[in-house]
Amino acid sequence: MSFRERLASFRENASTRVLVIYTGGTIGMKKDPDEGYIVQPNYFASSLKELPMFYDKEFAAHSSQRTYSDEASVYNEFPELVMPLSDQGKRIFYYIKEQETIIDSANMSMHDWLVIAKDIAKYYKYFDAFIVLHGTDTLAYTASALAFMLENLGKTVILTGAQIPIFEQRNDARSNFIGSLVIAGHYIIPEVAIYFSNKLHRGCRSVKASTSDLDAFSTPNLPPLLSVGVNIEVRWDNIFRYKNTGAFAVCKNMDENVGVLRLFPSIRAEIVRSFLQPPMKGVVLETFGAGNAPSNRPDLVAEFKRACEKGVILLNITQCLKGSVSDAYAAGRAFSELGVLPGYDMTTEAALAKISYVLGKDDLTLDQKKELLMTNLRGEMTIDHEQQFRLKEGKFVRTVAKTLKVGSEKEMENLRRSLLPMFLCCAAKSGDTIALDELLSQGADVNKPSDYDGKSCLHIACAEGNLEMVKHLLKIGASVYVRDRRGRVPLFDAIRNKNENVIDIMIKEGAHFLPDDFEVLRELCIAASNNDIQSLGLWKKAKVDLNMSDVDGRTPLHFAVIRGHLDAVRYLVKIAGVNAERQDIFGNTPLSNARKLRLQDMIDVIVEAQGVAARDFLEMRPVDGQIETVEMQP
C-alpha cells in the first residue's frame, strides 16, 4: 500500500489515537527462569505485535509508518501499533510510551503521579484518549490522585493492570488491556477511570478489593460506569460532567503533609497528639460506622479540637466499605461540632488525594479549602442533598410511552434513543436553553449525536453561532472533543461558519485539532484556493499548523500559488510563516511553482518573507523549451 493509499485508508476509516503510558506492574512482565517475573524495557511493545487481537499485521505489512509534519512528528517518538478494524468500523492506533523508570506500584509516590500527569498534559492535544498501565497495589491511589490533578478533563483516561502477565497462557491482562483500548477508542468518557474484569469504574470511587481474584477492583458506593458482556453497556447518566468551564490543566502542587489515621478502641491520646503535630496539615480520619468516634474520651476529643483550632484539616470517613458518614448518632454529631469535616462516602484513597489536592492550592484561604473539600469535585462522593437523575425518572418519556402503550424497559430505552436526540437538536438550533434543560432532565445525553450527521448539541450551537447556547452547553458538561460522523469536533463547525465569538470561547475551553486532521487540511486548502484570508486567520487562531500537507505533499501555500492568489500567499508566508520551499511528492515547491508561472509579485513576497534561504534558491525560467536554472541575486 502506497503512502497515498495508506493516508486515504486512514481517512476513510474512522480512527482514534490512544497514548498508552506504561509505568510498570504485572501486566507487561516477562517470566525469567531464575528471577521469576521481571520488567524488561521495550519487551512489552514488541511482544504485543505477536498477538493478533492487538496488532493487525496484514494492515501494517502493506504500509510503512507514516511521515508526519513537524507539528505531528510526536507520533514518531513511540512504537505505533494498530488494532484490527472494530465492529463499529473504527481503526485504533495506539502508541506505547514506557516511562524512563519502570517501577513496582508499591513504590509509587506523589512525584510519580506528577510524572504521569505531566505526560498526559504534554501529549494531550495529540491523542484522543490515554491509558495508563499500572501495578495493582496502588492503582486506586494513582487513579484518585489523577482524577483531581487533571483539571477540566475532556478526554478518556483509563488505568488498568493485571493479576497475571499478558504473555502467560492463562491471564487477565489481555482482557483488561484490550477492553481499555476498545473503550478509549470508541467512547468519550471524560473521567479518570479504572478498567478491570469487564467493568469500568470511576477512579476516585475505586478500591482494590482482592489480592488474588481477577475481579480485583470495585466501587462499593457507585455502580460501574460501563459493563462489557456480549454488548458494551455505558451508563451515561452515571458519567460525571464538569459544571465549570475552563481549559484542561494539571495541578502540579500536591501537598505531601497529609496522612491517614484509623481509629480503634482504646487508641491513646498521646498517639493522636503525636500524629497531628506539624508539619501535618491534613488528616483523613477513618472512624467507626457512620462516622462515629469515642464521645466518652475527653482526652481524645481535646486532641482533635486542638488540631482543628491550629488549622489542621480533619476529614471524617467511615471504615466501612459501603455507606457514608452521618450525624444521625450523637457520637458523630459531637465529632462534627469540633470542626471535623464530613467526607461522606469517599474512599480512603480519594479522601487522601483530595485533601492533598486542596491543600496544594496556596491561593485559597483555610475556609475556602474547607468549602472545597465539602464540594463534590469529581464525583468522588455522594452528598445527601444532591439528587442524581436516573433515566427511568423522566416524566416526558413515560407520558409518550403511555400513549404508545410501551411496556418493557427495553422498549422505553429505545423510545428515549429515538425521541430525545431529535428534540435536543431542535433546542440547540433554536437556542432554547429552557427546553434543552427540560430534555436533559428527561434523560437526554448532551454529548449524544443529535442528527443524521452524528453532530452533538454543541456542534449545532457552534455552527449556528449561538454564543449563549454554547456557553450554557459547556457549563452543563458538553464535551469540546466529541466527534460527528466525519470525525469533526464542534470547533470545526464554528470556524467553517466564521463564528468568531464562539471560536474564542471554544479555544479558551481547550478545544483543538489533531495535527494531521484531514478534514481541517481540506478546509485549509479550500480557503487558500478561494483567497479566503478570514478563514485562514481563524484556523491559525485555533493553532492549526498551516504547513499541513495533503497526500501529494501540497500545503495550502501550494494551492494559493497555483490559483494566483497574491493576498493568500502574502498571508501564508508573512503572517502564518508557511515554508515556501517545502516540496510536494513531485518535487515542486510553492516558490518553484511561482517561478514556473512567472508570478513575479508572488516571488517578491515570498523572497522578502523567507529571507536569505529563499534568495539563494535557484530561479527556474523556460528557455527555448528547456528549463534553465539561474541563481537569484540578493
Read across the widest sheet, the strand sequence of neighbours is: 4-5-1-6-8-9-10-13-14
Extract low-pLDDT stretches. 1-13, 386-393, 615-634
Overall shape: globular
Largest sheet: 9 strands, mixed
Strand content: 5-15%
Average of per-residue pLDDT values: 83
What structural class do you assign from the helix and strand content? alpha/beta
- How far apart, in Å, are the first and last alpha carbons? 44 Å
Helix percent band: 25-40%
Number of helices: 25
Question: What Rg is obtained from the alpha carbons, in whole angstroms?
Answer: 28 Å
Secondary structure: number of strands: 21
Task: Describe this entry's structure for a reader.
By secondary structure, this protein is α/β, with parallel strands linked by helices. The protein is 38% helix and 14% strand. It is built from 25 helices and 21 strands. It has a nine-stranded mixed sheet with strand order 4-5-1-6-8-9-10-13-14, with helices on both faces. Strands 16-17-18-19 form a four-stranded parallel sheet. β11 (207-208) and β12 form a beta hairpin. α21 (556-563) runs antiparallel to α22. The two termini are 44 Å apart. Mean pLDDT is 83; it is low at 1-13, 386-393 and 615-634.
Question: Would you spell out the secondary-structure blueprint of this structure?
Answer:
Elements: H1 3-12, E1 14-22, E2 30-32, E3 36-38, H2 43-48, H3 57-61, E4 80-82, E5 90-98, H4 110-122, E6 129-133, H5 139-149, E7 150-151, E8 156-160, H6 173-186, E9 192-196, E10 199-202, E11 207-208, E12 217-218, E13 226-228, E14 232-234, E15 249-250, E16 258-262, H7 269-275, E17 282-287, H8 298-309, E18 313-318, H9 330-337, E19 341-342, H10 348-359, H11 366-373, H12 395-403, H13 409-430, H14 433-441, H15 457-464, H16 467-475, H17 490-496, H18 500-508, H19 518-529, H20 533-541, H21 556-563, H22 566-575, H23 590-596, H24 600-610, H25 612-615, E20 618-623, E21 626-631
Parallel strand pairs: 1-5, 1-6, 6-8, 8-9, 16-17, 17-18, 18-19
Antiparallel strand pairs: 2-3, 4-5, 7-15, 9-10, 10-13, 11-12, 13-14, 20-21
